[in-house]
């Protein structure tokens, strides 16, 4: 009996192992092997070049595009949507006056506007509205619809949505919400009750101001928009989802703002809970919303009455699937055409890559599709993928897009004046067991930290080699970008030199020579925070920590993980000595980057000194008001120089793209400023 | 008995009140500046947005005002409409589900219930049957296999087993896809041609005479049921087997055998009912667990039930939704406890409910 017991155990265990192997090997199948199980007779042979691979790469249903994603939209109302999941749907169902020219982030083509003119002083934009365009419910597009949509957006206001981006050009720099127009100070920002209690004539006046700034002429088919000042990024701003055009009659009949200046306050800062347009859509775009089962799936169908040629795809099904393993299985079976792949799971899909398009930084576009015949996981970045020899093809089903710098970034912000009560500054004094609260006010300390950071290790460890050091705040393809701008590099000698130049006891003698002792002789101790689970933020501090300790063993940086709510509170309270945080651009324009970093959200969390802020503010005011790209380039280069010299923030790295789709997916426009995909040009084989 | 049930039912609101106080009170351990990040999705782009949320949800108000607002909601002075208030059935807005929490529960719960109904058979009855067999054939082959099986079953994490069968039966064989229904049938179910009588998809598809939809729904539930069964059999098997072995050693069983009763009667009429007491408790809690949503199984197989929605809400720190689910789970637990108590009395006449 005992023997039988062991025999059975062995059987069960071995069958489990077999099953585990069977499940485990599937994803890591050698890329050279064909899709069928490899023949054991010829294990070392490369893929047979004679086999016409693409014939096997046909989709199950070429009319329907299936995307396996996670986290669905918050709202489908273009006036309120401020995240990419909703943005993707909006950009395919609604349309804007102007839109991006293909894959360019800085060139625009007319869409619902046939053409537009700008006055000589750059403040009046006149759009000629396209005729013959119909909404999905059959109504005609009119100039009034356009004006209504923009007026509704501005009056909608609120800081949970994107309307601040439109408010500034119409009301002027700093006036980023309609509530500021009403009472001059925005005391009722985001508070409908408070706003409604204000005198009626103030409310009506604010609304009239909006209406006089955006005027429709239905007879002439034009909409005239008058800005408060010239605004360089205006066209880029209205090309995004929040510039979408709604059908006024449809919106009003569904319970949205009725267009009256007496009632607008009832719709101010409306949350998606009560917003009637949260789940319904009626646009002019190439696709119509068929259904949205929140948290499960969203289905779009082709608009056959589209004003251009109808789209090639008939249906788009976006499934929201949280579990990566499930999404991966759908990619393997071919049930999903595009799958969201978290970076930690990339290697599983990398092994299935059969072709790739590598981004060409100089040309600012993806190169042609190259067949991939080998995969070497020991390498980093694009070198992992071995292109086929001439005449060879791969039967692997996945296409890889690699190497395009993203439009988001994580950077290291130093707090000039740390708030009282911080638990992360040790003793709070220059005694070797803490840091004074104005530690980072010393320019040399900031420079020393910059020189002590090791970009190479960071990019290699966190991004597996797939990132680039960001030279300036501006991204490629926008005024202000300078690929050859001076940058800080990993240089421990200079780091040491800067620490020795610091003068934290403010006696006028640099720390390296101070006989009474300064930071170089006393040392320091601070705690660097990251939110738990955010490994990349953790690694940033660990790199700094080991490098400053190498320069001087009295320099101690302790890395402390906090739960997200506590982390956010600490940063907002300005109690963190420095913090790593991220920005994702809203529009592809330098103003959207320089504003938060130099004077806005981050500058205030850093407690940046007023003089420095004023210097930045002056440059930014000139930059945003200029409309000539060459002039703007010059202005923002000035900002770059000051930013580099003053180094309030260490610019870390920008990840580069690493995305996948099935090779039968064609015609995909890869514009990084898009929210997800633009389905109009796409088709399947 | 009736008295007992009425008294227990009257206790339900009191218990629920305690549950709400506990759940809501725990949140107050965070200060307003921390709690606000539970109401914002992701990294806030401006501090104005953060301050607006604190103001909107009255996060810096005293506890009793926040609790009152949560229970009764607030009346918008502009529109005169009541916003929120769980006593009015308004559990708030789920930012991860982009719909009211009550609606999210109402949409997801039937799916979970459907899965539970189909899983009870395989999960509980097969588990019990295996346990009885193992005890009856004590130290026999069936017993040995069952013991190995239960060791492996308890030590095999659900998500590993789930992903394994997903890889085999979906990625390789393509027999049992994840999700709730195939796309073609989803369109039918969402259209006017399909009447939702009970909101339980398997039953509705039969009532609509759509056997193909019924089979498709079962096909999608096969792997979740298999996974649930596999992980719960181990427990049922061990509990049933242990309890059964103990009962079989009792003197009245010996007496029954000595009287010359057929072995089948000894086991099924005399021993089994008495061995079932601990199993009933276990079964009660298993059903509660299933109805409350099986988070890992639903997530792995992308089954749109309560569990996967709760998981998504927790991961994204969507506190409004998590509170709603916690309350709903509390309700299920209280009701299920009552049912288990009553079942006790049915199974064991010695238990007097008073």
As a whole number of angstroms, the C-alpha radius of gyration of chain A is 28 Å
The gross shape of chain B turns out to be globular
CATH homologous superfamily label of the largest domain in chain B: MetI-like
Measured by residues with Cβ under 8 Å of the partner chain's Cβ, the largest interface is: A-B, 73 and 74 residues
Oligomer: heterodimer
CATH homology superfamily of the domain at 408-655 in chain A: Dipeptide-binding Protein, Domain 3
Description:
The complex is a heterodimer of chains A (685) and B (354). With 685 residues, chain A is of the alpha+beta class. Helices cover 31% and strands 19% of the residues of chain A. Chain A contains 21 helices and 24 strands. In chain A, the strands form 6 sheets. In chain A, strands 12, 13, 14, 15, 16, 17, 18, 21 and 22 form a 9-stranded mixed sheet that branches. In chain A, strands 8-9-10-1-11 form a 5-stranded mixed sheet, with helices on both faces. Chain A has a 4-stranded antiparallel sheet with strand order 4-5-7-6. In chain A, strand 12 (353-360) and strand 13 form a beta hairpin. In chain A, helix 18 runs antiparallel to helix 20. The radius of gyration of chain A is 28 Å and the shape is globular. Mean pLDDT of chain A is 89; it is low at 1-55. Chain B is an all-alpha fold and 354 residues long. Chain B folds into 2 domains: 2-94, no CATH class; 99-353, MetI-like (MetI-like fold, Orthogonal Bundle). In chain B, helix 15 (306-315) runs antiparallel to helix 16. Chain B is globular and about 85 Å long. The model of chain B has no long low-confidence stretch (mean pLDDT 85). Classes of the chains: A alpha+beta (685), B mainly alpha (354). Chains A and B meet through helix 1, helix 6, helix 10, helix 17 and helix 19 of A and helix 2, helix 3, strand 4, helix 5 and helix 6 of B.
């Amino acid at each position: 009996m005992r023997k039988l017991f062991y025999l059975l155990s062995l059987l069960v265990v071995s069958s489990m192992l077999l099953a585990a192997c069977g499940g485990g090997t599937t994803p890591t199948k050698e890329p050279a092997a064909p899709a069928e199980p490899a023949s054991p007779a010829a294990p070392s042979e490369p893929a047979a070049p004679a086999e016409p691979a693409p014939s096997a790469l046909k989709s199950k249903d070429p009319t329907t595009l299936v995307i396996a994603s996670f986290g669905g939209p918050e709202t489908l109302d273009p006036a309120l949507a401020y995240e990419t999941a909703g943005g993707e749907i909006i950009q395919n169902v609604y349309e804007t006056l102007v839109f991006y020219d293909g894959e360019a982030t800085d060139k625009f083509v007319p869409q619902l506007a046939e053409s537009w003119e700008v006055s000589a002083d750059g403040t009046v934009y006149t759009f000629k509205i396209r005729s013959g365009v119909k909404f999905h419910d059959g109504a005609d597009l009119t100039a009034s619809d356009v004006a209504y949509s923009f007026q509704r957006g501005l009056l909608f206001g609120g800081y949970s949505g994107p309307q601040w981006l439109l408010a500034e050009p119409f009301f002027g720099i700093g006036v980023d919400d309609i509530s500021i127009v009403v009472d001059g100070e925005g005391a009722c920002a985001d508070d409908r009750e408070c706003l409604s209690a204000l005198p009626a004539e103030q409310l009506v006046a604010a609304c009239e101001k909006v209406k006089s700034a955006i005027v429709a002429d239905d007879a002439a088919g034009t909409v005239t928009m008058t800005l408060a000042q010239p605004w360089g990024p205006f066209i880029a701003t209205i090309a995004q989802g929040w510039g979408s055009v709604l059908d006024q009659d449809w919106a009003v009949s569904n319970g949205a703002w009725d267009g009256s200046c007496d009632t607008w306050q009832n719709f101010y800062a409306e949350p998606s809970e009560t917003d009637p347009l949260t789940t319904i859509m009626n646009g002019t775009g190439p696709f119509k919303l068929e259904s949205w089962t929140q948290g499960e799936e969203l289905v779009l169908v082709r608009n056959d009455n589209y004003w251009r040629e109808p789209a090639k795809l008939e249906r788009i099904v976006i499934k929201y699937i949280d579990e990566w393993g499930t999404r991966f299985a759908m990619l393997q079976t071919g049930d999903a055409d595009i799958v969201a792949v978290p970076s930690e799971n990339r290697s599983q899909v990398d092994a299935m890559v059969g072709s790739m398009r590598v981004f060409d930084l100089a040309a600012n576009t993806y190169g042609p599709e190259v067949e991939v015949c080998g995969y070497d996981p020991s390498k980093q970045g694009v070198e992992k993928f071995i292109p086929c020899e001439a005449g060879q093809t791969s039967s692997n089903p996945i296409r890889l897009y690699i190497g395009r710098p993203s439009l988001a970034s994580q950077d290291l912000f130093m707090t000039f004046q740390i708030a009282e009560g911080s638990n992360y500054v040790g003793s709070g004094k220059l005694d070797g067991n803490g840091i004074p609260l104005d530690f980072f006010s010393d320019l040399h300390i900031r420079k020393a930290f910059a020189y002590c950071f090791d970009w190479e290790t960071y990019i290699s460890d966190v991004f597996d080699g797939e990132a680039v050091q960001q030279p300036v705040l501006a991204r490629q393809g926008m005024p202000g970008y300078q690929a050859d701008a001076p940058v800080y590099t990993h240089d421990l000698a200079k780091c040491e030199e800067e620490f020795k130049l610091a003068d934290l006891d403010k006696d006028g003698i640099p720390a390296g020579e101070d006989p009474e002792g300064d930071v170089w002789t006393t040392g320091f101790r601070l705690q660097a925070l990251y939110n738990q689970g955010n490994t990349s933020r953790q690694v940033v501090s660990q790199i700094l920590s080991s490098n400053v300790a190498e320069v001087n063993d009295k320099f101690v940086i302790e890395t402390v993980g906090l739960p997200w709510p506590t982390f956010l509170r600490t940063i907002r309270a300005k109690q963190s000595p420095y913090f790593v945080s991220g920005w994702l651009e809203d529009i592809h324009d330098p103003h959207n980057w320089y504003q938060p970093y130099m004077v806005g959200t981050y500058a205030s969390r850093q407690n940046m000194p007023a003089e420095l802020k004023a210097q930045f503010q002056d440059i930014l005011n000139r930059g945003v008001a200029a409309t000539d790209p060459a002039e703007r380039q010059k202005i923002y280069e000035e900002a770059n120089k000051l930013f580099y010299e003053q180094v309030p923030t260490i610019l870390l790295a920008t990840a580069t793209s690493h995305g996948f789709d099935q090779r039968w997916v064609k015609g995909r426009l890869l514009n990084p400023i898009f929210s997800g995909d633009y389905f109009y040009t796409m088709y399947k084989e | 008995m009736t008295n007992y049930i009425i008294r227990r039912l009257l206790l339900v609101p009191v218990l629920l009140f305690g549950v709400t106080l506990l759940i809501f009170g725990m949140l107050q351990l965070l200060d307003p500046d921390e709690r606000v990040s539970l109401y914002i999705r992701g990294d806030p782009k401006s501090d104005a947005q953060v301050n607006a949320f604190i103001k909107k949800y009255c996060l810096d108000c005293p506890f009793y005002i926040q609790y009152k607002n949560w229970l009764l909601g607030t009346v918008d002075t502009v529109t005169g409409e009541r916003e929120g208030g769980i006593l009015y059935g308004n559990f708030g807005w789920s930012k991860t589900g982009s719909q009211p929490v009550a609606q999210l529960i109402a949409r997801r719960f039937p799916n979970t219930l459907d899965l539970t109904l189909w899983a009870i058979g395989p999960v509980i009855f097969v588990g019990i049957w295996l346990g009885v067999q193992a005890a009856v054939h004590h130290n026999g082959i069936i017993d040995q296999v069952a013991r190995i099986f239960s060791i492996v079953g308890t030590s095999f994490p659900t998500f590993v087993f789930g992903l394994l069968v997903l890889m085999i039966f979906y990625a390789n064989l393509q027999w049992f896809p994840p999700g709730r229904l195939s796309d073609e049938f989803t369109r039918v179910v969402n259209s006017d041609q399909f009447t939702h009588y009970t909101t339980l998809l398997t039953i509705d598809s039969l009532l609509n005479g759509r056997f193909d939809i019924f089979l498709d729904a079962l096909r999608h539930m096969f792997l979740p049921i298999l996974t649930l069964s596999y992980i719960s059999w181990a427990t049922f098997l061990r509990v049933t087997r242990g309890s059964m072995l103990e009962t079989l050693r009792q003197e009245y069983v010996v007496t029954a055998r000595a009287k010359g009763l057929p072995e089948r009667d000894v086991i099924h009429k005399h021993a089994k009912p008495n061995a079932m007491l601990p199993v009933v408790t276990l079964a009660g809690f298993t059903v509660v667990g299933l109805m409350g949503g099986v988070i890992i199984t639903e997530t792995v197989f992308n089954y749109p039930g309560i569990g996967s929605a709760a998981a998504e809400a927790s991961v994204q720190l969507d506190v409004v939704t998590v509170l709603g689910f916690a309350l709903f789970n509390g309700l299920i637990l209280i009701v299920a406890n009552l049912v288990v108590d009553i079942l006790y009395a049915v199974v064991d006449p010695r238990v007097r409910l008073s």
